[in-house]
Amino acid sequence: MTVPRNLTRRVTIVVAALIVGLTASYTPSHAAEGEATTTVTDHPGAPGTMLRQFEDLTGRPVGDLDRVLAVDAGGRSLTGEELDALVAGEKVDGVRVVGTMPGGRDILGTTMADLADGSYDGADGGGTATTSLIFASSVPGGRDWCLTMCVANGKSIWECLLSRRGTGQVLTLELAGDTTVGGMKAAFEKSNGVTVDGPDSVATLVGDREPTAAEISALLDGRDVESLRRVATVVRPDPGWALVDVAEKSGVPYAKTKAHIFNFRLPVLGTFLAVCVSQDGGKTWKCSARPWSGF
Prior knowledge:
Elements: E1 9-10, E2 12-18, E3 29-30, E4 36-41, H1 46-58, E5 64-72, H2 80-87, E6 96-102, H3 112-115, E7 131-138, E8 143-152, E9 157-165, E10 171-176, H4 181-192, E11 197-207, H5 213-220, E12 229-235, H6 243-249, E13 257-266, E14 268-278, E15 284-289
Parallel strand pairs: 1-14, 2-8
Antiparallel strand pairs: 2-9, 3-4, 4-9, 5-6, 5-7, 7-8, 8-9, 10-15, 11-12, 11-13, 13-14, 14-15
C-alpha cells in the first residue's frame, strides 16, 4: 500500500468509519476500541439514515458529507491508513477506485445501490459483490472528521462500522531558535507523514509565564488563554524567517514569554494549528500540534 503523504480532509475529530451496512430497523453495537457498528437495509435516504444513526449511537456529530468514494477492495476490510489514503487520492494496493462523488445534502437522500457504481445518477446497480462505499464527512470549525466504509451484505443489507478516534493527543517538538518557519513545518510534516499548505498566518502572543498543558490544548483549539495575550498577526509569513525573528518581524518588542500560533491547511479537513512557545528570548522553542493525519 502507498503511505499517504497528502490528505484531503477537513479539521479535527478523527473518525474512521468502516460501514458495512444500513438498515431502517438497525441493530447498533459497540466494537473494540470505541468503534460503533450498525446494520441497515438500503432504502432512499440510506446514506443520511446511516449518519444519523451513528450520531444517535455515539452522541457526537459526524458533520457534513464532503465526498463519497465507490471502491472495489475485493471484499476485504480496509485499514484506517488505507481509507485515509484513498480519500487523499492515493493508490492502495489491491483496491480499485470505481468513482468519486462530491458530498452534499442531495446525495444523502439516494440509495447505497445508486452510489455503488461510482456515480450519483439515480440508477441502481452497477456495483459488484465486492464494491464498497467510503463516506468522508467533517464537522465545520471543529476537529472531528469521519471516514465510513460501507460494504453490502447480500442485495440490500449493509453492515456498518464507525471508528471514532479523539484528537486529544498533542505532539511537541523541541526546536532551536534558528529553525525557520519552513523548517518547523517540515518537522511536523515528517512526524505526521502528511503535507500541509501554509502557514496562512502567524499570531504572536506575549505573557509573563509559561502556558500550562491545558492552555496549550486550548490554543490548539483556537481559544484564548489567561497567560497569553495576542498582540500581532502576520498574513503569509515568510517560510525563511527564523522562529527567533518572527516576533520582531511582527513588530512585537521583548516579552518574558513569547508564543506564535501558525495556521496551516489540509485540503477538505480545514485548519490545523501549531503553537510554538519560548521563555529564553527565542533561543529554544517548544512547538505543539495535534496529529495532522487524522488517525
